[in-house]
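The data layer described in this paper is built around a simple, fixed record for each protein. Such a record has a labelled line for the sequence and another for the C-alpha cells. For reference, a complete record is included directly beneath this paragraph.
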Amino acid sequence: MKGNWSAFSGRITVLGADYRINNTAGVPAAAMQLSSGVTVCYFGNLNAKVPVGELSGVQGSTLSGLNNNNNGVSANTLTWEVGARGTDAAFAGNITNGTSPSLTAIRKVGTGTWTLSGTCTYTGATDVADGTLRILGSASGSKSLTVAAGSTLEISGTGSLAVSGTMTNNGTIRFYGSPAFSSTGPFINNGVLDLINGARTLPANLQNNGVILQAGDVRVLGMSMSGGKMSLSVRCYAGHTYKLQTTSSLANPAWTDITDSAFTPVSEIVHDFTDAAPGSAPKFYRIFTSP
C-alpha cells in the first residue's frame, strides 16, 4: 500500500498472505481486520510510526514490523499506533518484531479498549497513551512499558506480562486473578495499581509513589434500616462491578444476588446498596466484586 489512505474511514479486510504498507500516513481512520495466515508489515528500513485506527484479527494472523525483502534492515523501530477510531477491538493474532535486528513497538491511542489474546513477542516499547490495553494472552520481551495518566492497562488471570526494562504507571494498572508477571527494571507506580481481584503480592522492584488498591480497600462504611429497607454504604472503585448478595446460612452458603443491585462505577465513590425487602428471617449479606 503506497498511496495515502489517511482519509479512508471504512473497513479493510485482509484475506491474502502479506499486506505491506509503504507509507507512514497509515490508516488512522480505518478499521483493519486480519484473517488467519495474514502478516501485516512495513515495507522499508527506517524509524517510523504507522497509525491504524482499529485493528482486529483472528488466531494465526500476525502484526509484524520492518521488512525490506532481501535488502536487509538496520536496528530501526517500527511503531504501530493503534486505536485512533476510539472503538473497542480484539486481536487474537501474534505481534512480532520485523526482520532482525529491527524492533516493533506498540502505542495504544484512542478511548476504546484493545484486547490482545494472542502471543506478543515484540521487543520494542509498549506505550498506553489513551484508552485501555487489555492483555488476555502472553506479552513478553517489551523493553519498556508506560501507562499515561487517564489510561489503563489490564492483565487478566489468563494472561502474562514480562517487561525487559522499566515499567512506569501514571494511569491505572489492574491485575485480575493471578497472571504471570515480571519486569527486570524498576516498576514505578505514580498512578493506581489495582489488585482488588488480583491474587498476588506486590512486586519486589516496586517503587510506589501512587495508590495501591487491594481487596481490603472495598469496605463497608455503614449500615442502616429505614422504612423496612436495609442499606449498606460501600466504597467502590472503577474497573469492577459490585453486587449485593444474601444467604440465609453461612454453613455451605448459597449466595444470591439482590435484584438490580449491580453497580459499575466510573471512579471512586461511596455507593449505597439496598435490600428493599429483607423480611423478618435472619440474613447474611456480602458485597461481591467482578472481575
About this structure: The first strand starts at residue 11 and ends at 14. Residues 90 and 115 are 5 Å apart (CA to CA).
